[in-house]
Specification:
The complex is a heterodimer. Helices cover 3% and strands 48% of the residues of chain A. Chain A is built from 1 helix and 12 strands; from the N terminus they run E-E-E-E-E-E-E-E-E-E-H-E-E. In chain A, a hairpin with a 2-residue loop joins strand 7 and strand 8. Chain B is mostly helical. In chain B, 49% of the residues lie in helices and 11% in strands. Chain B is built from 7 helices and 4 strands; from the N terminus they run H-H-H-H-E-H-H-E-E-H-E. In chain B, strand 2 and strand 3 form a beta hairpin. Chain B is elongated. The chains are: A mainly beta, B mainly alpha. The interface between A and B is large, with 46 and 42 residues.
Amino acid sequence: MAFSIEYDQSLPYKQLPFIKGNCPALEISLRNGSFVWRGPGLLDSGSMHTVLSREYAEPLGIKEVESGERIQVSTFGGPAYLYQFEVEMSFEFEGQSEYFPSPVCFSASRVGRNILGRIAIFSRLKLGFSESSERLYLGRESF
Amino acid sequence: MLATSDALGSLLSTESNHPANSAPFGTDSQTACFTDQGRSSLNRFHEAIIWDKLDEALPKSPLEEYLRVVAVLRSPVVERITINVSDEMGWLTENISVIERDFRGQWLLIVGRELAAHDREFGAIRRIAIERGLEKPFLYFVPEVTQLDFIA
């Protein structure tokens, strides 16, 4: 039996500097105490973690990336380490946004992109990706 | 195991949740005024319900399962609202070539639809953001080099 999926909002894929092609980018905001950063990240269902390039530690008031909880992850390039911090995340949905606790990791190296992984954001949004139309669909999952 | 006739009888006497069970055959008042042609349609309708129920009850072959998945994937996506992208995100995505040419390795502070500041040192950008009283500054670090295709 066929079924249909309803989403509440949609937005076109976006091009970001030095990243090939249009991609499913979502604007998020991160807050760490009085430090707030707002900018784009790439939704990536293949990543467990939300990982920011290490440059973004500074806007969040994090002086030493390596002071975060060290997490070993598996990549095709072999094992790698991420450094995790508990911050707050928000994104706009249906005209509203509110912060929720979210673990965010920083890479040890400069990777030049911010990955929005399954932990935190995927559990809060029902997401649909249409590569043919380069469009991202979002629905309310739970808040 | 029920004989086929018993099973069909059971199915006929069972209320169906099939969407087609609503109009035009949904209520007794509607079925009461059917012509012969209407009764024939009604029989076909009941037959369809029976086949639907049998279809649900029987195990699916891999081909049927494949076709079911294809049907799901081809089902229309209902689009309601397009998100209004922020002015800052709009500026970022509309000025890719300038950003890639002129601002490698720099922080960008984007306010509304303009570049408010750019600098290699984040401290300088932060000072400007504070001076302008920005509560949620839109900040973007431009990578030094073109990214390779990536998988995560």
